Every structure is written in structure tokens, then in C-alpha cells.
Amino acid sequence: MLVTLKEILAKAEAGNFAVGAFNSPTLESARAAIETAEELQVPIILSHAEVHFEVTPLEVMGPILVELAKNASVPVVVHLDHGSSLETVKKAIDTGFSSVMIDASHMSYEDNVNTVIEVVDYAHSHNVSVEAELGMITSSGIGGEETAGGEELTEGDAEDYYTDPEVAKDFVQRTRIDALAASFGTVHGIYIKEPQLDIKRLKLISENTKIPIVMHGGSGLSEEEYLAVINSGVRKINYYSYAAKAGANAIKEYIEQNKDLFYHDFAVIAKDAIKKDVKRAMEIFSNKGQYAKK
Ligand SMILES: [Zn+2]
Q1: What is the active site of this protein (predicted)?
Q2: Do the domain assignments include residue 255?
């Protein structure tokens, strides 16, 4: 069933777990996430990032995601990831998305606040949830869903862009957003060096804002790191790069071992490999399966 981000994150808060947000630029990535969520009976978020519109346009992928969500046996949020403007947000909402992210984090603070307020007014009047970003989540430069304005930022700059817990309080009060994307050590894409998470900062952000925190760049972390951020207020974990890499690696192996190649076989192989990868993530985030706490 299609649900809003606000509804699902309230449940995550009450149960001290996190909901995985899986980028779905192709049918295989979307189906892999939905099928795994149904097998585990956990809620999920299907995200379509604006930078992935060139892979599959919003007009094509959007209705598919909404339909998959409506027919699912688990709660599913259909979410716009890193939307860059009110125009894109409106398009996503018209398509039936139940949640949007507006990323104005590259703007000045006041411009960020004003842009987010505009989006919140529109989205909330349509019963759609809003996530916004304060501070900037940088990129390792290898894969990942890129930010709307911070593509040029590299991992080396990361700390300069961490979210300020005091500013976060003001940001959330003024914008009335439903979830806050915070920067505290994760980066988009494949990790070149071990991530150093600033858990103390994360806890302060969570305490000051009293709303669910979103962790971007959330694939490629250890079980311990996931549990640490969940216990510190993270309720939505954006998970993509490592799942996409798992799909590609499986296809590469298949090509090396087989002669007669047909494209549809790649789709099946990729989906199966992505399922395996996201299963671990979903089990850890929701405290299920082999990762259930004893
Ligand atoms: Zn992101």
C-alpha cells in the first residue's frame, strides 16, 4: 500500500528502527526492493532521484513506482530524491508520489529556508511529506545518487559541510519539514576510505530537531555503524550505490562465463543480485532475519 513518509517514519521512531530508501532508476531495482520487502514484511521507500531522470524519466518511472507501491503487501513510500526545484516537486506530486525531498542545501541559509517553506506549503496541502537537507552530504566521486547542487564537492571537503545542530533546530522550526537529511560523515557513492561517523553531532541534531533524521550515502557501512546511527535518531537510510554495484558485478561475472548473451538475462541476474544485497540492509535496519537482536 502507498503511504506517506511521515506515517512510516513515525512507526520507525516508535519501534526504534530505520526504513530503507532504495533508488529505483530501473524496473529491476524497483522490483528487487519491493520483492525483498514483501519477503521480509518490512516497510520501504522507493526513491527516484532527479539525477536519474536521464536513466528513466519521471513521467515513465513515476507511474510504475506508484503502481508497484499500491499493489504491495507492505507499506511503501514513493519518494522524490534530491529534487532541485518546486517545479520538479510539483511534477512528482502530480504523478502520485507520497513524499518529496527538496535539496536547496547548496544555497545560502535564508534561501534554503525560503525554498523549503515554498515546497512544504505545496506538498502538505497535497498530503505529501517533505525531506530537506541542511549542511551538505558530499560525494566520493564514484557512483551514487548525486546532490542537486553539490556534485563538485569531494570527500576531502566533507567536514566543512557537516550539519550544525543549533542551526538545524531553527531550520526545522521554520520550515516544518517531516524529515531532515543531515551531514555527519557519510558520503554519496562508493567509499574510498573508511567512513568516520560523528555520532555525537548526530545525537545533538536529533535532540534539537525532534524529527526523524535521514542518512544519505547509507550503503557500504558495517552492521555496527547502522545500529549506532539508528540508536541516535536516524529513521530513513538512503541505500543505493552498493546495491547497484552488486547488480553490475553479477552481470560482469555472467558475461565472463557465458557465450550466448541476451539482454533480458542481464535484467534477471541484476535483480537477483540486488535483492541479495538489499536483503542484508533491510534485515539490519528493521532488526529481522539473521540480524535480529537475540
Ligand atoms: Zn543523497
Answers
A1: 81
A2: no
